[in-house]
Design brief:
Blueprint: H1 10-39, H2 42-64, E1 67-68, H3 72-81, H4 85-93, H5 95-105, E2 107-122, E3 127-140, E4 146-159, E5 162-170
Antiparallel strand pairs: 1-2, 2-3, 3-4, 4-5
Length: 174
């Protein structure tokens, strides 16, 4: 009895090619269906909402930590535009006093978010919570800046189609 080497059998190549083609078609079908399912699922909408809230929160925290005594009104306009609810009301009510303090201090502050994350998101209710680590360079007029780091906890609320700060506070480091 002679045992033939399967690699030399011409049918072996045809069987191997057919099997590889079948595996490719099945894999492409599986991944295509998975991709289409993910693209049309609600989780993609939640991910987009999360990203939008986080980006808006990061920018709002930067806005609240960046002020130039030479253009106080512009900085305060950014505070108002970045906030909603009672926080916005508080800023508007104290606007004149804040402008006077900032002008008197004669400092320029520049905030930079080093890291931030949402800790909660309720997209349906339009509410989120965020934490952030912010580096703030504080430069008195004609002096080099001193750099400090702050930690913040923020609450965000959707105002129309935009996320804005509804509360902002520092987190004590112990």
């Amino acid at each position: 009895m002679v045992i033939e080497n399967p690699r030399r059998n011409p049918r072996w190549g045809l069987v191997a090619a057919s099997a590889a083609l079948a595996v490719s078609v099945i894999s492409a079908g599986f991944f295509g269906v998975s991709w289409a399912s993910a693209a049309n699922s609600g989780s993609l909408d939640v991910a987009r909402e999360r990203d939008a809230a986080l980006e808006a929160g990061r920018q709002a925290v930067v806005n609240f930590n960046t002020l130039d005594f030479r253009d106080v009104q512009h900085g305060l306009d950014l505070w108002v535009d970045s906030s909603t609810g009672p926080l916005r009301d508080q800023i508007q009510a104290g606007r004149q006093a804040n402008a006077a303090k900032i002008s008197e201090a004669r400092t320029v502050t520049e905030g930079k978010v080093l890291d931030a994350a949402l800790t909660e998101l309720d997209a349906q209710a339009g509410k989120a919570r965020m934490i952030a680590v912010v580096e703030v360079a504080v430069a008195p007029e004609n002096q080099p800046p001193a750099v400090k780091r702050n930690r913040y906890q923020a609450e965000l609320a959707r105002d129309g189609d935009r996320w804005k700060l509804s509360n902002l506070g520092t987190v004590a480091v112990g």
